[in-house]
Every structure is written in structure tokens, then in C-alpha cells.
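We close this part of the discussion by returning to an individual protein. The sequence in question and its C-alpha cells are set out directly beneath this paragraph:
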Amino acid sequence: VWTLSHSICGAQIDSLQKQLLIHEKQSKRFERDTARIYFLNEIAWQYRNFRTDSTLYFAQKALKIAQEIEWPNGIGMSYMRMGVGYRNQGNYPQTMQSFLDALRIFEKLKDSLKMANCYQN
């Protein structure tokens, strides 16, 4: 079962990375693009169960860009991905901090669904 799950995630990661490259070639302002943040966070999500260091790497990369362009939703999603990565590593203090950071953002945005996800995690 793990091998099948790992294979499916690997295929999804490959697909997301290809989409990221295509978008990079097509966009003139890709370095500061919300689509790039989305793809990085989705790649981070796919790694969550078998390569948490990669989850954190991609989420932190997305966070940096989201902060540079001041995109609150991207910042919040990056913190959520980081929270999952830290949780799966067993780093519970960082888990709590990441989800609290995300929660503060989603409270300001009045995004009740993402707030609920923060509380659930």
C-alpha cells in the first residue's frame, strides 16, 4: 500500500513540477506570481507523508515569495503546509507556531474554512 501511495504522490509531484516549469516559461513576472506560490505549496503538500524535509523546503520557499508580494492567502497556506511538515516530523512546538501563524492570517481574511483547518490540525 505504501509503495502504491508513494508512486501516486511521485506522479503528482512530477506533474506539478512540470506545470511549474511551463508556467515559469510563459510568465514574464513569474518570480512574483501567485501561481508559483500555489504550485510550491501543492508540491509541499504532496511530500507531506514521505519526505517532510521537502515539504518544509517548498513551503518555506512559497512563504518567502508570498511575504515579498504581500499575499496573505499564500502566506497562510505556506504556514499550514509547514505546520503539517513539522507535525509529521514530530516537531510539535513548530507545528503549533505554524498553525497559529496561519490562523491569524485566516482570521483577518475571515476565511472560516481555513480557520477550521488550522484548528483541526
Q: What stands out?
A: The radius of gyration is 14 Å. The chain is about 85% helix and 0% strand.
